[in-house]
Amino acid sequence: MNEMTNKIIGTPLDRVDGPAKVTGQATYTADYRPTGKTAEGFIVEAAAAPGKIRKIDTQAAEASDGVIAVLTHHNAPKQNPYGTPEEAGRFTQSHAMLESDHVRHVGDPVALVIAETLEQARHAAKLVRVEVETSEGTFDQFAADVEIAKPDSLDGADEVDTSTGDFEKEFAASDVTVEASYFTGAQHSAAMEPHATVAEWDGDELTVHMAIQIVAPGLKAFANTLGIEADKVRILSPFVGGGFGSKLGVHNDAILAALGAKVTGRPVRVVQTRRNVFSNAPHRSKHRQDLKIGADASGKLKAISHDSLAAMARNYPFAEAPASPTRASYFAPAIKTTHRVVEADIPRVDSMRAPGEAIGTLTFETAIDEIAEQCGIDPVEFRLQNDADRDPNSGAPLADRRLSECIREGAKKFGWDGRVTPGRRREGNKLIGRGMASAIRPNFLVPAEAEVVLSANGQLRVRLDMTDIGTGTYTILTQVAAETLAIPVDQITVELGDSHFPASSGSGGSFGAASCGSAVFDACGKLSKLLQQRLSGKGIAANAISVEGDRVRAGGNDYALADLVDDGALTVKGAVDPSEFDHGEEEYSYGALFSEVEVDVDSGEIRVRRLLGAFDAGRILNEKTARSQLMGGMIFGIGGALLEESTMDTRYGSFMNRDFAEYHIAVNRDVPELEVHMLEGFSEKSNPLGSKGIGELGICGTGPAIANAIYEATGCRVRKFPIHMEDLLQHLPQG
Amino acid sequence: MHAMHPLRITVNGQEHRADIDPRRSLLDFARDSLNLTGPKKGCDHGQCGACTMIVNGRRINSCLSLAVSHEGDEVTTIEGLAEGSDLSALQRAFVEHDAFQCGFCTPGQICSATALLDELKEGLPSVVSSPDKLAEMDEEIRERMSGNLCRCGAYNNIVAAISSVAGDKS
């Protein structure tokens, strides 16, 4: 094997797309410039909903400078009804826009103004006059008179409800109990790149440049919406400016751009404004989570119940699974979980980074902290003594369970020295507290295909419809190819985000690197074997080969690639079949988070002073990008604990804080020096690479580690998130 | 019909003369009139910093500034920081320290950091500075980079990247 390339997986290789990104040369969707003259589309949103459009006056807009067309439900091309076919699921069913006089929610598009320039379109959009006759809507799942239902399915979890053991009996027999309701706010993924699409038709063929995480189902969404065949659609998404769940599927800009391009015969660009994104792209529902936990006097868990209530956007089937971590974190003889939803007339609710665990660990790990304290047991010890040796819910064996290792490693690195009496640690006018929590996130492997093309000159192209949403995919796949084929990194080009390439997992659920990496691993392995066969065919023994320049090395000699490839290039396909890894064991990534906060004794201002995570994500594919992803997740966790909440005016169903001045994500100075420790590992049962999901793991556990630290600092247990200074103000010591 | 306004402006060392819509922001002028798509529109409200450019030596949110107000100005965008394929020290540091993930905020981060280094050199104070001296370097950087949002959460690495270059300079 080539000395230089045989150990490249795992090394901290700089991002191969780094130079493009630091010079402004990486082209995101809105940067794409079609050959034809592009027209700009601007969305006109409904100001009230639900209801019917009684009147829409577009005359002034149409007469305005530069306007090419104004699309409304009167003149929009015919589409298949929204939400059909029902069985297709949310990523592929019809996403019809401007289809009727019905207005679903505040912010629902009622018109698209298309003009020569953005300034013209934006101005004309203000001239469209819309009257909506509203009907009574449901906006608040916590209201008294709502209809609560069990969803048909949950995102990322097998069962909506679970029950093992006899909860009532075990809870009644518990020596110590915690019973509390926790509230988590609605949140927006708020990727820095607003959703954007440039659509072009060539006859009956549609090409869309768009920001999307998972390409292949998007083709079907266009097909099901527009009534065309999926093979008439091409999606291109080479660079995506962050997704965090909000770009998993096709959203409003995409369909509107396709309709606009159809009507005008021009390429049409629709870039959502930041305000648009808060209602024309999905969000995480606010949740109420009711937790009951019982333990015996020695701190052994006996009974856990976790009941979740969320909103589901009407006609958009998605329900989050906050009780997912409750089913898997600790052993108890009885565990009962339920998820309920209220159909509401609000913007779409969908996955946001670490769906389930982000808000599930936030509440559950806070409750665990509460019961540990009531038992008089250190929170680290409490978690260690309740670790599970089989899946607490299903009873199935656990593959590669390393939660306790993460907790021990984190405690050691952090210097955890037990709890102090809440409110007792003080430096000047700052109350200091420390807290910790476990992190857990299911590990997935999903089908993916890839192709590799080796040219006679030694250039290797790796192609699949996978996206790099900041996750480092270009780089990681380069490393997998380099090591598997023993070929230098600079001879590899990874090409992503084109639906003409083999269908992959896409980016979501932390399954991208494992699934796509395994497909590339398979393709390169096959290519390597094929080269060996061809060498053997020429009488050359080749047990191990490597590629360097345009030569293949084998058995101490080297041979021209040109003699081994047909027609100048060799193309090989590879894939990963998750059923081959279906061994009946439950798989998770694990972690433990430790934090130290300070709370200003006068104002209640909360600052995170230290945040440390110890993680097990199996084999690390790139030490640098993996660390970055974990840090990014931890910062998302700071947001969930302290900052982020989309506030709805529940009288009218409108989000009120639709920009970055009012929807607060962490800024640079909100974030202390983060400490990340990754356990060495190889999860052989997970996939051929031995890796596990990492992109969402850092969020899990971070929020409750901070919340538990705030409790230690102040003695005040806040059960709604984000925790704000005003929640603490009444509870701070006087003077 | 909106009257077009004449504009003479120098961008990345090159002088441009154009008749432009007075409603056009400096950001949209760069992106749509000059086809310089490095600067990004993350909010169009001056809240995220993805559009940061350097105008006459100072960093500004170009989405909040009308292009016509920049008659005669010297503007540097992300495209103007490298010399051919020779990346600037900050650009190299951003790659080395993995100071970005999706990369969408990166052009703004780097323009902002480029001007920040000059501010530090001039000793211009920030809210974390004492009356007579600057705070510790990383703290000054964290504060001064807080107008550039990064949703992927590359903040630690951004501070490390800038700090490595600021350290070299001092």
Automatic annotation (TrEMBL), chain A:
Keyword set, alphabetical order:
Molybdenum, Oxidoreductase
Q: Which Pfam families match?
A: Ald_Xan_dh_C, MoCoBD_1, MoCoBD_2
Q: InterPro entries in the record, alphabetically?
A: Ald_Oxase/Xan_DH_a/b, Ald_Oxase/Xan_DH_a/b_sf, Ald_Oxase/xanthine_DH-like, AldOxase/xan_DH_MoCoBD1, AldOxase/xan_DH_MoCoBD2, AldOxase/xan_DH_Mopterin-bd_sf
- Give start and end of each Aldehyde oxidase/xanthine dehydrogenase a/b hammerhead domain: 23-136
GO MF annotation terms: iron ion binding; oxidoreductase activity
Q: List the Gene3D superfamilies.
A: Aldehyde oxidase/xanthine dehydrogenase, a/b hammerhead, Aldehyde oxidase/xanthine dehydrogenase, molybdopterin binding domain
- Listed name of the protein: Xanthine dehydrogenase family protein molybdopterin-binding subunit
TrEMBL record, chain B:
One Pfam match: Fer2
RNA-binding listed as a keyword: no
Which terms in the Gene Ontology molecular function aspect does this entry carry? 2 iron, 2 sulfur cluster binding; metal ion binding; oxidoreductase activity, acting on the aldehyde or oxo group of donors
The protein's UniProt keywords, in alphabetical order, are:
2Fe-2S, Iron, Iron-sulfur, Metal-binding, Oxidoreductase
Read off the InterPro entries from this record. 2Fe-2S-bd (IPR002888), 2Fe-2S-bd_dom_sf (IPR036884), 2Fe-2S_ferredoxin-like_sf (IPR036010), 2Fe-2S_ferredoxin-type (IPR001041), 2Fe2S_fd_BS (IPR006058), Aldehyde_Oxdr_Iron-Sulfur (IPR052914), Beta-grasp_dom_sf (IPR012675)
Domain 2Fe-2S ferredoxin-type, chain residue ranges per copy: 5-81
**Keyword set includes Magnesium:** no
Superkingdom to which the source organism belongs: Bacteria
Q: What's the protein called, per UniProt? A: 2Fe-2S iron-sulfur cluster binding domain-containing protein
Lineage, broadest ranks: Bacteria, Pseudomonadati, Pseudomonadota, Alphaproteobacteria, Hyphomicrobiales
